[in-house]
Amino acid sequence: MTHLDTHSGHGPTEPGLESPPPHPGAGGHDAPPPVSPRRRRRGLSPLNERRWRNFRRNGRAFWSLVLFTILFGLSLCAEFIANDKPIAVSYQGEVYWPVFSFYPETAFGGDFRTEAVYSDVEVRCLIQTGGMVECFDTPLELIESGATADGAEAGWLLWPPIPYSFDTINDIDGAAPSAPDGQHWLGTDDTARDVVARVIYGFRLSILFTLIVTVATSLIGIVAGAVQGFFGGWTDLVFQRIIEIWVSTPSLYVIIILFAILGRSFWLLVFVTVLFGWPALVGVVRAEFLRARNFEYIRAARALGVGNWTIMFRHMLPNAMVATVTMLPFIITGTISTLASLDFLGFGLPSSAPSLGELTLQAKQNLQAPWLAFTAFFTFAVMLSLLVFIFEGVRDAFDPRKTFQ
């Protein structure tokens, strides 16, 4: 017969029954501490929990992230902040959403099937009066009197805070560019477009371009550097010669040729920038993998039969992340500078796009309008400073030797 020790919990148990957890001190072993509810809620590992804690303690990086998130979040809603179309329109009891959909003028009692120009006084009169025909003769008087068509409800228009989009040509008194006033808080550029609207849309465009290019170049560069450093030998030698030839290619001439053939567009510029930007991380990742490939834990993993890709990206890459993250501020600032430089030279995005580099070019061409130069300078200064502070905090958070009190 088998003796069952029902007190210590070390004897066999019946199938389907679980032994109760041992009490502290039972059998000479202490029970593991319970998992923190906050950690379970976040779903972070202890290592990532420490990294986040270090990032939070870096006040400059954390508050830069908060401020950048607010600014970028507002820019993502640019259509609701600066637009020459109303957010919502009520006409004869029905609500329309011009910011999302196309509505012809005939939908509001007009004569044309083209999109309604909501800033025209006649269109506003048609909407507010419910479609009175007299709006084509005396629109202002009807709007001021509050008259409505027989049996129709009074309509309304909900405008964004800035009633201009980035490409709206405004009617201004005098020549463009015009100085800041109550209607245009930062003035207008040389084609009478509102500068505040172009800054909001340009900020979003620059950040989205930077994020897409940074993620794509980082992924390609990390994979290429990992392959070189891990396998070494002829693989590393051939790869290095290819990279040396590729980085010596004059990228500006390639961009000029491609834009002359295919035309300027956002995604073509993203493709070309990624095409010439991925070698930036290769050298750093390659050096880290060359250093780590002969460590004992890598040899042990190989002896256990672990696959090469698992060793590279599960065991070696986390140890190379500190050096990799160190390069990210330079890649991000370089990407923003590349976009601004190409737009400044006239080889970037189309001139109608809300580009900050194009705003800088206008500041150079219109020295009599200093508000353009000040706006471009402070926008770049704030954007680059916030991004550099954030990624410096990320770098320090990944560094195991850095701690913050």
Describe this structure in words.
- This protein has helices at residues 37-42, 46-57, 59-76, 78-81, 121-129, 139-145, 195-231, 233-247, 251-262, 266-277, 282-292, 296-303, 308-345, 356-365, 370-398; strands at 88-91, 94-96, 156-158.
- It is mainly α and 405 residues long.
- The radius of gyration is 31 Å and the shape is elongated.
- Mean pLDDT is 84; it is low at 1-32 and 35-41.
Helical content class: 55-70%
Shape: elongated
Which secondary-structure class do the elements indicate?
A: mainly alpha
Outline the low-pLDDT stretches.
1-32, 35-41
* Alpha-carbon distance between the two ends: 61 Å
Could you provide a short overview of the structure?
The chain is mainly alpha-helical and 405 residues long. Helix content is 56%, strand content 2%.
Detail the topology: elements first, then pairings.
Elements: H1 37-42, H2 46-57, H3 59-76, H4 78-81, E1 88-91, E2 94-96, H5 121-129, H6 139-145, E3 156-158, H7 195-231, H8 233-247, H9 251-262, H10 266-277, H11 282-292, H12 296-303, H13 308-345, H14 356-365, H15 370-398
Antiparallel strand pairs: 1-2, 1-3
Q: What attributes does this structure have?
A:
405 residues, mainly alpha, three-stranded antiparallel sheet, 56% helix, elongated
